[in-house]
Fold this sequence. Notes:
- Helices cover 34% and strands 17% of the residues.
- The protein is an alpha/beta fold.
- The protein has two domains: 2-156, Rossmann fold; 168-253, Alpha-Beta Plaits, CATH 3.30.70.20.
- Strands 2-1-4-6-7 form a five-stranded parallel beta sheet, with helices on both faces. Strands 3-5 form a two-stranded parallel ribbon. It has a two-stranded antiparallel ribbon with strand order 8-11.
- The longest helix has 16 residues, at 150-165.
- Flavin mononucleotide (FMN) binds at residues 6-11, 47-51, 76-82, 107-111, 213-215, 241.
Amino acid sequence: MIFYFTATGNCLAIARELDSELYSIPQELKKKAPLHYKADTIGIVAPTYSGLMPRIVRRFLAKARFDTPYFYIVMTYGMNPSVAEKEAVAYGEHVGVRVDYAATVQMVDNFIFAFDMNDQMAIDKQIPRQVAELKQNIANRVKGFREPSEQQMTGFAMVSERNCRWPEMTDGTQITVTDKCVGCGICSKVCPLGRFYVGDDKKAHRYSEYCEFCLACAHACPKKAITLSVQDKNPDARFRNPEVSLAEIIKSNQF
Ligand SMILES: Cc1cc2nc3c(=O)[nH]c(=O)nc-3n(C[C@H](O)[C@H](O)[C@H](O)COP(=O)(O)O)c2cc1C
Ligand code: SF4
Ligand code: SF4
């Protein structure tokens, strides 16, 4: 049993490699019934955002109860896993979830603020090798997690301080719709918080500026009409994992 969150498909692609019983975290969070799960193995697959699990994943972990002899968290990341595993285990402890194993998988970095997607897609990150290792570790019920380096700890502290000082770095308020928008409504379907709507002017608008900052909207827009006001490395380059369809992202995230 795996619970996943994905904006551009990396985590769904990895979740599918690891198990056949998959549940989308945004869809599980909609359920009114208590979120109690029991299985022989339970995993979470989620992206790394500034070294941490996305807020929506943390909300799910805080709300859900898991009855399993083996609980693991896999976080996909792009260029620097930072303190991902350590912080995931610590957050689990904080909300009463025992994490037996935490690991990371390097994939395309979808953070358009910092990276050009064309450059990212050109890098061979040896995903099959990483997945094979991960599968073996989970099959063998390996326990533990990688300790971050000193440099990663310092980098994480600096990024956290920056994010506190400039909330627009992580709160979604820099997401901007340009006049390339044709009102197709895809952004409203991939947003896990249902932040977008298409107005009478046939343009996309946001109900509230504050959000997860997952970038599903920007990557899925067929007109590349969603950009970041502070910095967008290449507004003409967007990404979706080649193993995952737009329909699957919509099904996973539709509010
Ligand atoms: C807001 C944001 C912050 C990110 N922070 C990190 C990070 O700290 N380290 C990193 O290596 N990748 C980072 N990434 C990249 C994603 O973790 C990575 O591309 C992930 O595989 C995306 O998964 P998905 O396709 O399932 O959404 C970030 C992406 C976003 C959107
Ligand atoms: S996906 Fe893009 S083009 Fe379609 S409504 Fe949203 S912003 Fe406009
Ligand atoms: S508005 Fe865009 S970045 Fe914000 S939660 Fe929705 S899809 Fe993610």
